[in-house]
UniProtKB/TrEMBL annotation:
Native source organism of the sequence: marine metagenome
Entries under InterPro entries matching the protein: PyrdxlP-dep_Trfase (IPR015424), PyrdxlP-dep_Trfase_small (IPR015422)
Protein name (database record): Aminotransferase class I/classII domain-containing protein
Length: 106
C-alpha cells in the first residue's frame, strides 16, 4: 500500500480531514486541541488528570475509543484517533453530553 502513491495520498487526506473534524469538535466544546503529526489528536481538557480520566471514561462508556496519557502534565489530555465520518458524527453528538456529565462533579 505504501508503494501505491494514489492510495497513500487518499488515506493521508482522509486522516487529515478526520483530524480537522476532531479539532473543530474539540474547539466547539471549549477544549484545546494540540498540534499533531500523527493519526490521533491530543486534546487538552483544561483541568486536571482526574477530570480528563472521567471524561475519557464517559466517552468510552458511550462507545467512543479514547486514550489518555498517564504522566503529568499530559494526563490532563485525552487522545482521539482519526475516524470515519459516521464515527465523527457520533463523537460530535457524544462529547457535549459527556462533558456536561463530567462537569457536574468537577
Amino acid at each position: 500500500a505504501l508503494k501505491d502513491s494514489v492510495h497513500l495520498q487518499k488515506v493521508l487526506k482522509q486522516v487529515a480531514d478526520s483530524l480537522e473534524t476532531i479539532r473543530n469538535i474539540a474547539l466547539e466544546n471549549g477544549l484545546t486541541p494540540l498540534p499533531t503529526a500523527s493519526n490521533f489528536l491530543t486534546i487538552d481538557c483544561g483541568k486536571d488528570g482526574a477530570f480528563a480520566s472521567a471524561l475519557m471514561n464517559a466517552l468510552i462508556h458511550q462507545g467512543i475509543f479514547v486514550r489518555m496519557p498517564g504522566v503529568a502534565p499530559l494526563n490532563r489530555c485525552i487522545r482521539i484517533t482519526a475516524g470515519l465520518p459516521g464515527e465523527l458524527e457520533i463523537l460530535a453528538e457524544t462529547l457535549p453530553k459527556a462533558l456536561e456529565e463530567v462537569r457536574k462533579t468537577f
